[in-house]
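Good morning C.,

I know you're traveling, so I'll keep this short. The sequence:
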Amino acid sequence: MYMVMFVLHDPCFLREVLEAWDAAGVSGITIFPSTGLRRLQTLDVLREDIPLIPSLEDLIQQEERLNRTLFTIVEGDEMVDKVVEATQSVIGDLNNPNTGILTVLPVVKTYGLNRKDEVDEDKG
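The tokens, ready to paste straight into the viewer:
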């Protein structure tokens, strides 16, 4: 088993990447907004002109500057290759700048992933 983590540089591609991963056979994906030190230093993500409690209008007018980090657990090298291929089919070559960073980590144990009893209850 492997954990695939992908830091997507441009959140405009999020939906396409999710659809590509789904088509590749990924069964579950966790997504969260993220940023890195370089982005904080160069893009001024934490702007001081945004109110402490922003209105919906403030949020809509604010340019999207955060990455999206996606992660999933997959079985085997073949599935990892499918996820990498699916990602690059949307983003392009990950070795190019400003595309993202994809990392694959071995998973020793997982708990709570395959809850077949809950899946069967949902069907019934």
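Safe travels,
E.
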